Amino acid sequence: MSLSVANPTYDAAIVGLGPVGAIFANLLAKAGLRVAVVERVADIYDKPRAITLDHEALRVLQAVGLGDFMEQAIAPHNGSHYLGVDGEIIKIFDPMPPPFPLGWIPNVTFVQPDVEQALRDRLAEYPHVDVFLAAAGVALQQDERAVTLTARRERGEEFLIRARYLVGCDGANSFVRKQLGIGLDDLAFDEWWMVVDTLTSDPAKRPAKSFQYCWPSRPGTFVPGPRNLRRWEIKLLPGEDPEAAGAPDNVVKLLKGFTDISDLTIWRSAVYRFHALLGQRWRDRRVLLMGDAVHQTPPFLGQGLCAGIRDAVNLAWKLRLALRGDAAEALLDSYEIERKPHVRAVVASAKEFGKIIGELDPVAAAERDLRLRADLKAGKAETIRQKFIPDLVSGLIARDAVLAGRLFVQPHVRAPGGRTCRLDDLLRPEFAIVTAAAEPMAWLSDASRAAWQHLAGERVVITTSGESGDADGILSVVERDGLFADWMRQHGAAAVIVRPDRYVFGAAGNADELNMLVGQLLEALGAAPSSIPATRVTS
Distance between CA 470 and CA 334 in Å, rounded? Predict the structure, then answer.
């Protein structure tokens, strides 16, 4: 079979079915794309690895149809207390107060194997998805039309998968990244830590709050998970052998330094090297990388898996638009342009917190305690964890427009049928123009409206009173908490253009601005009809 003439069987091939690969596959499958997934291991790893998610990740899990499941699977992350050398508080992360901007508790804990199983069960419902378990990628080639992946089953036989695009979600030792010869930039963090997951027979024994033990003698972290899961992360000291440190008797000894273990059963312990690494390139023509395959972060902000989930939702809609002809292929370049600086900023914050927690010099630790305690007392310390997660600063956004690059809020709304739900449950994963009253929706010119329909864009009016309905292509809903109305008022916006991944393209205050934003979006997608102005919008 000649590789250059065979027609692609699939729209996308995915290497790796961890949580990021599974979410990405679900997003593509829900959009009707033909997807192949290759995963080296037959079974889900049955122990927890990631333990925290944020509201943005939960919103993506909601988008693949797991909203109800996640409601039952999560527990609130009730904030963190950083304890100094003397055991007293030096730094605090508080839970964000309601109403929650994205419709979910901003930080939660979860049990990874349960969520992975739910993702696979959901994926199995799509007839146009083929999952090849116990099969590893061994070679890939690409031409101007498609990528051909050679995969090998455990028994040794090889088979070919041909797809228009291939995405490597295959973890830190990514086969795909190595095949492309893409290097990783070292962002200068390298520490050995032990992670100990335990099950408690007495869930009320410890506070339902995380603690960071900023002790030079032995830094550590405590995270209460859902139900009876309790995790400790314990730093290895200079000169300690990582292999010897993981011996069962040593795990027990180290754990006893943080807690009475009489109620605990050790579920899993593992010694990890915490890294900060960033892929030099995220795309090579028809092959792209996401998740741990292209970035790794220390865990001190709880953002490792969240970053991979952001990759998945960022790329999924762009791939869909490019494949269906609503955007030029160049749109795929905005994936790295948007995600790479975002990851770099998150890694920088995680490193900063890692340095606070892991300081081993007693003199420096005492100075740190004085400084942080003074900041806390003076009200200068940021206590909301989500404030450390940046907005988009470049890529497919109207950079001079109000709200560009910000995450769009998700109010609870009354649907036309009368039930109350989160807004996204009523929307398709397309672009949306959202207004706080009916009038701004009439600002769209005939050309803008026609172009919007061609793009399959949605039009949504969210009000604080009245009736919900769906007429003339416009969805009207009434929100419960005034979240959207307050947000629009605060930013002086009357209409906002929202991307399929729920980031804001830009907001407008009048008809000219809205029509210009529509034109600017179409031009950026490579699809602007000449009748729509596409000049730069200024706020």
Answer: 34
Longest dimension (CA), the chain: 74
Helices (H) and strands (E) in the chain, counts: 13, 27
Residue 379 burial (CB < 10 Å; 0-12/13-18/19+)?
A: exposed
**Do 35 and 187 contact (CB within 8 A), yes or no?**
no
Q: What's residue 40's pLDDT?
A: 96
Euclidean distance between CA atoms 168 and 39, whole angstroms: 11
pLDDT of residue 530: 40
Residue 10 CA to residue 33 CA, distance in Å, equals 8
User: Which candidate, 435, 450, 399, places its Cα nearest to that of 514?
Assistant: 435
H or E stretch covering 82: strand 80-83
Please report, for residues 72, 90, 186, 458, the alpha-carbon distance to residue 304 in angstroms, rounded to integers and kept in the order given: 22, 25, 16, 32
Residue 513, SS3 per DSSP: helix
Contact 147, 163 (CB under 8 A): yes
Q: In what order do the strands lie in the sheet with 80-83?
A: 89-93, 80-83, 210-213, 220-224, 229-235, 184-200, 264-279, 295-296
Contact 260, 144 (CB under 8 A): no
Tokens describing residue 428: 């398709």
Stated pTM of the model: 0.95
Per the rule left: phi > 0, alpha: psi between -120 and 50, beta: everything else, 343 is alpha
- Reported as type and span, the H/E element at residue 59 is helix 55-61
User: Parallel, antiparallel, or unpaired for β 35-39 and 10-15?
Assistant: parallel
Render pLDDT for 128-173 as a digit per residue (tens, 0 to 9): 999 999 999 999 999 999 999 999 999 999 999 999 999 999 999 9
**Angle, to 10 degrees, between the axis of helix 19-30 and the axis of helix 112-123?**
30
Q: CB–CB of 29/172 below 8 Å?
A: no
Per-residue pLDDT tens for 441-494?
Answer: 999 999 999 999 999 999 999 999 999 999 999 999 999 999 999 999 999 999
